């Protein structure tokens, strides 16, 4: 079944932008930065930031106890949420996207960045595609998504012409997921239905590998519980070659919002988290409420043996990076994200660095500082320049908690470690 894409509706763009501007500041702060009880997790700190607690002499007086307390506090605060030292880059502000987007999706095909869906505010989701052209640095070509396609937490991948769009959350706030799956032919901008996933997922890792569409991990139907399942189906030119998805080796660690990248016939899954916001029980609008999430730095790789191998970890835990990466010169470049929550305020902490995983040396580097910390940003690369747009930025240089949903587009010269 093929459907022609709809025409651009300018009036709606303006309305959506205004609503988003009004509501973003009010709601983002309330929801996305809300605090909750801290639960400790079994994650070790990098040794470079761990302070050894000195052994106190016997008969410690009150002063010594205080000293001990300070030491403990110091260690607790020397956690992974901190900014890492990173080279400054020369950032250039480009044309902003037609709408602000959080949890959107994007894929680059040649000189075009196709940008899909996302929240404008927590109560408003987009159901259209915007396209950025890296040649003349303009936005355009807006067309509608199918009415029954998910609006956020999508799995998405392209073969260079066809874009496969798998499952995701349907609707605003913390609504339920859909298993529905679609294909976009970017030569004709027509949509087709595709074989639904066996069960729905939120933000599963999704890639094309060895002629098959792979979908793994993500959150289960309650939005919080990590899924470990991994499915694949044979595909060619936007069509399924099999009737149903088949089960594959489960992922070692489940959960949403990780990067999933195929380079040189190897499949990598990078970062991500276990747990996410959930709908408040009984809420008629499925109001999002914070749940503890555990962000991780783990990297796993599948090769022809079809066994997961543990790769060197990221420089810090990083999540919300499913469309925030590019492969350039045999390196995976990852932009921004979220890391472990602040140990005292429990607020979500955004990431303001760019990371490089050099596949020649299998080493990670911190290769640049962003203009601000940002999560679920959408990334492209064109003629030596790294671009990012959309997502949710921090409150300011001194406060890494999430605030404004953005439409800005920025670029800087990409400098890689050989
Ligand atoms: C990628 O490699 C080419 C060829 O060696 C080089 O000219 C280019 O500068 C590299 N790009 C980056 C971003 O390092």
Kindly summarize this structure in a few lines.
By secondary structure, the chain is mostly beta strands. It has two helices and 33 strands. A five-stranded antiparallel β-sheet has the order 1-12-11-10-9, with no helix packed on it. Strands 2, 30, 31, 32 and 33 form a five-stranded antiparallel β-sheet that branches.
Describe the structure.
The structure is a single chain. This protein is mostly beta strands. 9% of the residues lie in helices and 41% in strands. A five-stranded antiparallel β-sheet has the order 1-12-11-10-9, with no helix packed on it. Strands 2, 30, 31, 32 and 33 form a five-stranded antiparallel β-sheet that branches. Strand 7 and strand 8 form a beta hairpin. The radius of gyration is 21 Å and the shape is globular. The N and C termini lie far apart (47 Å). The model is unreliable at 1-69 and 73-79 (pLDDT under 50). Residues 328-329, 384, 414, 416 line the site of 2-acetamido-2-deoxy-beta-D-glucopyranose.
Number of separate helices: 2
The secondary structure category is mainly beta
Number of domains: 1
Give a count of the beta strands, DSSP E runs of length 2 or more.
33
Enumerate the strands of the largest sheet in spatial order, edge to edge or round the barrel: 1-12-11-10-9
CATH topology: Neuraminidase
Assembly form of the protein? single chain
Catalogue the ligands. Answer: 2-acetamido-2-deoxy-beta-D-glucopyranose
- What do the pLDDT scores average to? 86
What is the CATH first-level class name?
Mainly Beta
Shape: globular
By CATH, the superfamily comes out as Kelch-type beta propeller
Q: What is the CA-CA span between the terminal residues?
A: 47 Å
**Biggest beta-sheet profile:** 5 strands, antiparallel
């Amino acid at each position: 079944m093929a459907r022609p894409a709809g025409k651009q509706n300018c009036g709606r763009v303006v309305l959506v932008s205004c609503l988003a501007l009004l509501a973003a500041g009010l709601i983002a702060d309330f929801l996305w930065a809300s605090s909750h009880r801290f639960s400790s997790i079994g994650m070790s700190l990098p040794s470079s930031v761990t302070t050894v607690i000195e052994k106190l002499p016997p008969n410690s007086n009150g002063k010594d106890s205080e000293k001990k307390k300070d030491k403990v506090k110091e260690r607790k605060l020397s956690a992974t949420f901190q900014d890492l030292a990173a080279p400054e880059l020369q950032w250039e502000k480009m044309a902003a996207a037609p709408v602000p987007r959080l949890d959107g999706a994007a894929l680059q095909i040649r000189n075009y960045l196709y940008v899909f869906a996302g929240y404008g505010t927590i109560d408003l989701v987009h159901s259209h595609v915007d396209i950025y052209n890296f040649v003349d640095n303009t936005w355009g070509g807006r067309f509608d998504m199918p009415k029954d396609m998910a609006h956020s937490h999508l799995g998405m991948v392209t073969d260079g012409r066809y874009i496969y769009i798998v499952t995701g959350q349907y609707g605003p706030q913390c609504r339920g997921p859909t298993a529905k799956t679609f294909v976009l032919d970017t030569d004709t901008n027509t949509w087709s239905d595709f074989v639904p996933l066996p069960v729905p997922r939120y933000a599963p890792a999704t890639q094309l590998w060895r002629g098959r569409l792979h979908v793994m991990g993500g959150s289960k139907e309650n939005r919080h519980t990590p899924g470990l399942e991994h499915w694949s189906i044979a595909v060619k030119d936007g069509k399924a070659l099999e009737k149903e998805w088949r089960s594959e080796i489960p992922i070692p660690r489940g959960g949403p919002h990780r990067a999933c990248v195929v380079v040189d016939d190897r499949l990598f899954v990078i970062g991500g988290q276990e747990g996410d916001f959930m709908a408040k029980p009984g809420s008629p609008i499925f109001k999002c409420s914070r749940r503890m999430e555990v962000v991780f730095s783990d990297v796993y790789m599948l090769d022809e043996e079809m066994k997961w191998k543990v790769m060197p970890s990221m420089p810090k835990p990083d999540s919300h990076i499913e469309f925030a990466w590019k492969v350039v010169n045999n390196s995976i470049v990852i932009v921004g994200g979220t890391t472990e929550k602040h140990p005292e305020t429990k607020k979500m902490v955004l990431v303001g660095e760019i990371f490089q995983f050099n596949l020649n040396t299998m080493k990670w580097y911190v290769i640049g500082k962003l203009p601000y910390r940002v999560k679920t940003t959408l990334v492209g690369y064109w003629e030596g320049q790294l671009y990012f747009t959309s997502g949710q930025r921090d409150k300011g240089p001194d406060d890494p908690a999430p605030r404004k949903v953005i439409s800005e587009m920025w670029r800087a010269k990409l400098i890689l470690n050989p």
